[in-house]
Amino acid sequence: MTRINIILLILLLSGSGIVLAIDGSDMIKATPVLKTQRTWIGQDIVYPEGQAEMSGVVIEMAPGGETGWHKHPVPSVGYVIEGQLEVHFKNGDVKKLNAGEAAAEAVDVWHNGVNVGEGPVKLVVFYVGTANSQLTEREDSE
């Protein structure tokens, strides 16, 4: 992951205040990628009760690869660094993300990510949970 991608991801999670604080520098370009109060399926974002813990994971998928059906019990933000990702929901809805796009993921809703491009998908997901909380639940674990 490049230094600029890391900076963008930090800005993504920090809100627009930092973007405004560093805006105007000739050495830094800050491009907001997401600011929302709802997930991409319209749910209000609610932080879990308890000691906060943030986690980040880089996920890489080969062409045609799938995540398998899973859900997240805590709010999360995904940012596609490379490739094309489709996210399928049990109700038949499909959302698409391309490189450079971000989404506040659905909470407690079953979904399956599919790499629909010809190259790999690389995305980073940040979770806002509580200390030692489960971040992802696989369908086959129920």
TrEMBL record:
Q: Which Pfam families match?
A: Cupin_2
Show the InterPro entries listed in the entry: Cupin_2, OryJ/VirC-like, RmlC-like_jellyroll, RmlC_Cupin_sf
All copies of the Cupin type-2 domain together span 58-127
Q: What is this protein called?
A: Cupin domain-containing protein
Q: What is the organism field in this record?
A: Candidatus Marimicrobium litorale
Tell me the classification of the organism that encodes this protein: Bacteria, Pseudomonadati, Pseudomonadota, Gammaproteobacteria, Cellvibrionales
